[in-house]
Amino acid sequence: MRRTPPALPGPPGTTHLSAKQVEVRRRERYSLRGDVVIRRGGQELTAERARYDRATDTADAAGGVIFSDGGLEVRGPAARMNFKADTGAFREARYRLIDRHAHGTARIIEITGKNRARARQVTYTTCDPGHEDWLLKARRLR
Questions:
Q1: For an engineered disulfide with 6, which of 60, 70, 85, 117 has Cβ 3.0 to 4.6 Å away?
Q2: Which domain, by its residues, includes 94?
Q3: Where are the alpha helices (DSSP H) in the chain?
């Protein structure tokens, strides 16, 4: 897994968008393509493409999605995030708990609030990637 530095804190309540190509639809809806970066406070979401709704502060992202909030990093093929509510969902995800030197995979990861998440069909280990001497597997983890 490539290591991503933690997202830099930004002004609270402000969401910043950047991409190679941005199309505005209906004033508050954006279609972004190529090197998409969405930042809000200490949260960062990167992807190849995304749709963002400024009115609800939500994004649907696809293509090499990476989400980071400083202590948690989640990677997957697609995600739906609500930045204002600090919630989101990933399928077929890989995650890292940076402060705990832990990582694993999950069929579904739901971010349920600041510093809270739950996962289904999940693995967990603190071993170095590729050298898992032990691995916990669970149907659900909170």
A1: 70
A2: 16-141
A3: none
